[in-house]
Amino acid sequence: MRERLKMDFDWKFNLGHAADLEKDFGYFPRLAKTGDPTGPAHPSFDDRDWQTVDVPHDWAVTLGYDEKAEAEHAYKQIGRQYPENSIGWYRKTFDIPDADLGRRLSIEFDGVFRDCDIWLNGHPVGRHQSGYTSFSVDISDYANYGGKKVLVVRADATGYELWSYEGAGIHRHVWLVKTEPLHVGLWGIFVTSEIARAGGNTGADITIETTAVNEQDVGAECTLVSTVIDPEGREVGSAESTQGIGPWGQEVVIQKVSLPEAQLWSLDSPNLYKVMTTVSDAGRTTDTFETTFGIRSIRFDPDKGFFLNDEPVKLKGACIHQDHGGVGIAVPDSLHQHRVARLKEMGANAFRCAHNWVAPEALDACDRMGFLVMNEARMSGSSRELLQQLSTMVRRDRNHPSVIIWSLGNEEMAIQKNVTGERIMRTMRRVVRDLDTTRPVTLAVHGGDGGPVNDALDLLGCNYLNLGDLDELHRKEPHKPIFLSEAVSTLTTRGIYERDDLNHCTGYDDNTFSPEWARSAEKMWTYVAAREFLAGTFVWSGFDYGGEPESNEWPSVHCNYGAMDRACFPKDNFYYFRAWWRDEVVLHLLPHWNWEGREGQEIRVWCHSNCDEVELLLNGEGLGRKDMPRNSHLEWAVPYEPGVLEARGYNDGRLIATDRVESTGEPAAIRLRPERAALDADNQDVSTVIVEVIDEAGRVVPTADNDITFSLTGSGRIIGVCNGDPACKITEDQTTYPAFNGLLMVYVQASWEAGSLTVAAASEGLTGARATVEVAECAPGPLVPSCPGPIRGPASEQESS
Hints:
Layout: E1 3-6, E2 11-15, E3 51-53, E4 87-95, E5 104-109, E6 112-113, E7 115-120, E8 123-128, E9 135-138, E10 148-156, E11 169-170, E12 174-179, E13 182-198, E14 201-214, E15 220-229, E16 235-245, E17 249-259, E18 273-281, E19 284-293, E20 298-301, E21 305-308, E22 311-312, E23 315-320, H1 333-346, E24 350-353, H2 360-369, E25 372-376, H3 384-397, E26 403-410, H4 419-435, E27 441-446, E28 460-463, H5 467-476, E29 482-488, H6 521-529, E30 534-540, H7 572-581, E31 587-590, E32 602-609, E33 613-618, E34 621-627, E35 634-639, E36 644-651, E37 654-662, E38 669-674, E39 678-680, E40 686-694, E41 707-714, E42 716-722, E43 736-738, E44 743-750, E45 755-763, E46 766-776
């Protein structure tokens, strides 16, 4: 039956060259005869001297910075100016046994940046454009059954698709899939549900649409059994159908299952069901397949906003780029979960994939954690290539209950407000509706009002429309739901409160250094919260990301639009959102209180809180008690005096919260705090380790910039370091890194061996630190749904087919 095996491990890798034949190992695209390519594409090529890597892999993360390089791409030395860094070759040798002859074999790539060519045993089996779309290549005819297989991928990252850091290489998982000729098609199951309420009970009617494929020379009598499994693992319903399928044909089978009681998927209770599909022919099982889904209803109302399960929900979203500080675009599965968890901690409930569809594991995390998703196509268009990419996105992701919106593109300036754009949007919407009628489509329009394009959209997504103009758009389009698909873009830096010689923006949400189209977080949310018709907002952005630095100017190399920095450390705006997006008491005081040499000078003091009143004290002396305006903040001008600055929050006159910042001593030691106590020994599981520079009293020194050197022993390795500084130009693979305002983040990854790993940190003049994380035998779980082990093959013993 079906096998889906990871092919992530033990690849051989080397850089090629985009302009020099000899430096690209003699490769040129000779297509005269199949099975006889040039250079590393040939199966007999000797790659023993190449580097061994695992995927996900991003070779650009180790490249240096250059002021002459593209600012929007983080000044990384990649692209047309750097042909020596823009081609990457990957080779993997593996075995397929004789017993697999007669089965259908394919290799699924979740993502390769950017354009790539693929060979198996010297035969060209695929070519793919775009660095974000998943794709599959059929290798059934080319596999050397019982012998060694050489899989080769040439990735060309010369061009780019976004205006930010995009990385390079096989940056997502790779899978070898084996099936019998009669099987479920690729992304071939679609599960929908209708909630049925009667007599106080909540039930659901489930529709299961299965595409069954028969890839053989004889017809098949396909028996399809679909069994619904509830969140507790119990069988709660099933359906059986029989359908004849001709040779090399496929049929869509639709089945219905009614559940008298249903557990709904929601933000607070993200209940997940499964459909277990069994395919058989003449009593012999040929395929089994598992599909996760959720039972929930969604609707957008032009006057009332968004509803989940008939309950109003304001979208409190963040736009998210794929890259993550320390690892680039090769984001491990557990970091996807970490990122969603931090967004939820901030109070967000929605995730906009900006501006491309994301790794499946990011959507899995949103499903498990009760997060809503706006899934976005990389580029708008009605060409065959772009429509195929759109179709693939919908088919791959339509079973995720977290996905509530299909976005057809972002800020397509050439078409977003004209009749050409209207025609393209209608074609794209038709493709989506052929595959999924349960979710609306939108386009993120810069300036908000798309004119004739509005008629082709179900939702009006507005990027940076003047806030007052949203009311006018609502009057103009009274039957169209409206939301802010992108807003804010205020520039802030963690721990910086005065402009410095590196052009760091400050942490105050006053829009002082932001672009002209930007709005402060406070101004945006105050406006949105007051308007019931607005479904919500997606702030730009959840995290800082590589490239697109402030004003595109050196010495900054990364942006600082995020509510969190590239290491996921909260900035001060994180607490503004948390105060007004979560139903819990929040009290956050800024700035830090280390202002030596500024004694007697006034310091701007802000407080983010949702308490009724806040009192400020300096060294125990009251500085005033103020009412907290809703969706706002409080300010004081406080003459600096070393000591303790304290905020006290009151509700109904009762003290309910305190926060304080203290003048610290000099840096004295390092403290390590792993996020997770244990990892799976799957060679991929990751924990973040928070690194703090502290004084003798154990307080984080908010201005510390000490260089710290990291090492690791035991069952794992360090895969990256990040300090969150948008001007830092040390590549993330280095193990000596400066703290940025007292903090660093280190990423440690487990190996195959159970045991433990210990990370150590040392710095001249500071007391070092060590922290240990257990590494347990791999077991199925939310981060590693299965652990079949690697497909291995000695790269030094390659044979020609």
